[in-house]
Write a structure and sequence with these properties.
The complex is a heterodimer of chains A (about 425) and B (about 160). Chain A is of the alpha+beta class. Helix content of chain A is about 15%, strand content about 30%. In chain A, about 40% of the residues are buried. With about 160 residues, chain B is mainly α. The chains are: A alpha+beta (about 425), B mainly alpha (about 160).
Chain lengths: ~425, ~160
C-alpha cells in the first residue's frame, strides 16, 4: 500500500528546534493572550428574533427560513392567493427569556406537495404548513407567522397560536419531503438576505427590508445588482431525525468560512477550546453582534423509513465508476452494488449527491418536469449498506417529488459537488408499459 | 502558565501540530508559523483537557483552521511548490507518493493526513474539520480515488 510510504515520510517531519525557544519567549511575553469564552451554547438571554420586536424577528427568521426552507414553498407563483389581513396582527410577543429559539434546518416541501402537507422542523420548533386556505403558515416556537401573498410580506399573528393538532395537520416530518436546490448570494464578508430559487422559470429574489422589517420580493434592478455578487451553493446538512439537532449550515465546501446558524450568517472570528466566537454578517456593515456558540457537530442522518425497492422494478447493468447497477420502478429507484469502503465505520450514509432526471421526448433529453416547470432534482439521496451483498444500496422515492413515472425513456445524471462540475455518472433507463 | 508547563505541552505535541500544518500548507515556513500560532493559542487558553486525545484533537483542529485562514488570505496554494516534502523523501517511491498527495486539493490532503497519519476515524475527522461525516467519507473516497489514479496503485 502506498500509504505506508506516506506514513514514513510524514513521520520524518519534525519542526525545527529554533522554533521552540522563539515560541516560549513569545508566549511568556504575551500580555494577556486571547480571551477564551465560556462554553455556553448561545449567549443570548432573549431569542434574537424577539429582541428587537417581533417584526424584525419574523423577517429575519423567515429570511433564513426562506434561505433554508420556506421559500420554494411560498414561491408557488399563485397570484390569486391572499392571506387576508384580518388574520394578521402586529402585536409583540412575550419573551421566554432564554433559548436558541428555532431551528433552521427544514427541508423544502415542493409546492406541488399537498397543501395539507407539513414540513416539520426538529427540536426548537419551526413549522410550515400549506393549508387548503392557501395561506402559508409558519410556526416558530409558539409564534405563528403568515405569508401574505398579496402584500408579499411575512406577518406575525399573535392570535394564532395554534398547534399541529389545532390546524389538523397530519403531516409526516422530514421523510416525506426533499430539498430543492437553493443558491444564496454572498460575498466574502457579508450576506445578502436574498434567495435565488433556480427551480423557477423566472428566478426570484427576496430581500429583507430592514427598516420596515418585512421580507419583500426584489425588483429586477435589485436582482441584477445582487446577481453580480458571488453565488455559492448552500450546503444543507441533514437534519438528525433522532436527536433533533441541526443548527448549522455550511457554505461552500464546509469550511467554517461562513457559517449559517439558526438563520443567520456568521464569520468565525476565533476558535477556542470549546467554542467558536462568531460575528454576525450584516448587510449594512454595522458593528457585528458577537455571539459565542458551541462548536456544532452535525450528526449523521439516519432515515428510519428508507423504502425497499419494488421487486417488480426493472434492473439494468450500468457501466459506472461508483454505481454499477440500479433498479428502477415507476415509484422507486435504487442504485445497488455501489462501492463500499469496509474501512468506513458507519453502516449508513447520506452523501447528499444530486441527481436530475431527464426524459427523452422526440429524441431530445428534456428536464423532467413533473409539476409545471419546476426543475427539481433528486437531492440528498441515502446510501444504505446492503448487508447481504456487502455493498451499498441507494433508494429514492422519486414518486414523492415527481409522481410515478409514466412509461418512457429517462436519463439520470448527477454532478460533482466538488468544483461544481458535471461528472459522467449518467444512466438511461426505461419504464416499460408493463413494468407495473 | 509557566514556561516549564508550556515547554512540556509544546514538546508533547509540537510535531503533531507541525505535521498537520505541513500536510495542509505544504510549506515548511507556513507550517512553522502555524505551529507557533497554535501553541500561542493553546497557552493562552490555559485550560486542562480531559485527556491527551482531547488536547491533541483540539490542537489539530485549531491548526487546520489556521491553515485554512492562511491559505484563504494569501492563496498560497497557487504558489507553493512541493519542496516541503522533498527533503523528507528517501526513495523514489516516497517522492512519488508525496507528489501525489501534495497534488490533492487542500481539503482532501488534510483528510488523508488525519486518517492515515493520525489514525483518526471518520467521526473524529468530521469533528476536527467541522464537516459532516458523510462529507468526510465522500472526500476521503475521492481523495483515494485520485491517488489511485495518479499512483496506479491503491493508496
Amino acid at each position: 500500500m502506498r500509504s505506508d510510504d506516506y506514513k514514513k515520510v510524514m513521520g520524518r517531519a519534525q519542526i525545527s528546534e529554533k522554533c521552540r525557544e522563539k515560541l516560549l519567549d513569545a508566549a511568556e511575553n504575551a500580555p494577556n493572550g486571547i480571551v477564551v469564552d465560556e462554553p455556553v451554547e448561545i449567549i443570548r438571554h432573549t431569542p434574537w428574533y424577539r429582541r428587537t420586536g417581533f417584526a424584525a424577528a419574523a423577517s429575519l427568521v423567515l429570511v433564513a427560513g426562506l434561505v433554508g426552507t420556506v421559500g420554494v414553498n411560498m414561491m408557488s407563483g399563485r397570484d390569486d392567493i391572499s392571506a387576508g389581513s384580518d388574520i394578521c396582527d402586529s402585536s409583540g410577543v412575550e419573551s421566554d427569556g432564554h433559548g436558541a429559539g428555532y431551528c433552521a434546518s427544514i427541508p423544502i416541501a415542493p409546492p406541488s406537495i399537498s397543501l395539507e402537507e407539513i414540513v416539520r422542523s426538529n427540536g426548537d420548533g419551526m413549522y410550515l404548513m400549506f393549508s387548503d386556505e392557501n395561506i402559508c403558515r409558519f410556526c416558530v416556537d409558539d409564534n405563528w407567522f403568515f405569508y401574505d401573498f398579496e402584500k408579499k410580506e411575512i406577518v406575525f399573528s399573535a392570535d394564532m397560536k395554534k398547534t399541529f393538532e389545532d390546524v389538523g395537520i397530519t403531516g409526516t416530518g422530514f421523510g416525506d419531503v426533499e430539498w430543492s436546490g437553493i443558491t444564496s448570494l454572498t460575498t466574502e464578508d457579508e450576506f445578502y438576505p436574498a434567495v435565488h430559487f433556480k427551480e423557477y422559470d423566472a428566478p426570484m429574489l427576496f430581500k429583507l427590508d430592514v427598516e420596515n422589517n418585512v421580507l419583500m420580493f426584489m425588483d429586477e434592478a435589485e436582482s441584477a445588482e445582487l446577481s453580480d455578487h458571488v453565488q455559492r451553493e448552500v450546503w444543507v446538512p441533514q437534519p438528525d431525525w433522532e436527536n433533533n439537532l441541526t443548527r448549522c449550515y455550511h457554505i461552500g465546501d464546509n469550511d467554517f468560512v461562513n457559517i449559517f446558524i439558526e438563520n443567520m450568517y456568521f464569520d468565525v472570528k476565533e476558535e477556542t477550546k470549546r467554542a467558536l466566537v462568531l460575528e454576525r454578517c450584516l448587510k449594512d456593515h454595522a458593528e457585528p453582534e458577537r455571539f459565542t456558540l458551541c462548536s456544532v457537530e452535525l450528526p449523521l442522518v439516519r432515515d428510519p423509513e428508507i423504502t425497499p425497492v419494488d421487486d417488480d422494478g426493472l434492473s439494468l447493468p450500468i457501466d459506472g465508476d461508483i454505481i454499477s447497477n440500479f433498479v428502477v420502478s415507476p415509484r422507486f429507484i435504487a442504485f445497488t452494488d455501489m462501492t463500499c469502503d469496509p474501512e468506513y465505520e458507519t453502516d449508513y450514509r447520506i452523501y447528499g449527491e444530486w441527481f436530475s432526471v431527464e426524459k427523452l421526448v422526440d429524441g431530445q433529453w428534456q428536464k423532467f418536469y413533473r409539476f409545471g416547470n419546476k426543475d427539481y432534482v433528486l437531492p440528498e439521496i441515502g446510501y444504505a449498506r446492503d448487508s447481504e451483498k456487502g455493498g451499498l444500496r441507494l433508494t429514492f422515492d422519486y414518486a414523492k417529488v415527481y409522481g410515478e413515472l409514466e412509461p418512457g425513456h429517462y436519463h439520470i445524471e448527477t454532478y460533482s459537488d466538488e468544483d461544481k462540475e458535471f461528472i459522467t455518472l449518467s444512466f438511461d433507463f426505461e419504464i416499460a408499459g408493463d413494468a407495473e | 502558565m509557566d514556561r516549564n508547563k508550556m515547554a512540556e505541552i509544546y514538546d508533547q505535541w509540537k510535531n503533531t501540530v507541525y505535521r498537520a500544518a505541513l500536510a495542509y500548507c505544504k510549506s515548511v515556513q507556513d507550517a512553522e508559523d502555524i505551529t507557533h500560532e497554535v501553541f500561542l493559542t493553546r497557552f493562552a487558553a490555559n485550560e486542562d483537557f480531559p485527556s491527551d486525545e482531547a488536547e491533541k484533537a483540539w490542537l489539530i483542529r485549531v491548526a487546520v483552521n489556521k491553515c485554512k485562514n492562511l491559505l484563504r488570505r494569501f492563496d498560497r496554494s497557487r504558489t507553493d511548490s512541493l519542496d516541503a516534502a522533498a527533503g523528507l523523501c528517501e526513495t523514489q517511491a516516497e517522492s512519488e507518493v508525496m507528489e501525489a498527495v501534495n497534488g490533492l486539493p487542500d481539503k482532501y490532503r488534510i483528510l488523508i493526513y488525519l486518517y492515515y497519519i493520525e489514525g483518526y476515524n471518520i467521526r473524529e475527522i468530521a469533528g476536527i474539520t467541522s464537516q459532516t461525516e458523510t462529507n468526510v467519507q465522500t472526500k476521503l473516497y475521492r481523495a483515494r480515488k485520485q491517488l489511485k489514479k495518479t499512483l496506479k496503485e491503491d493508496f
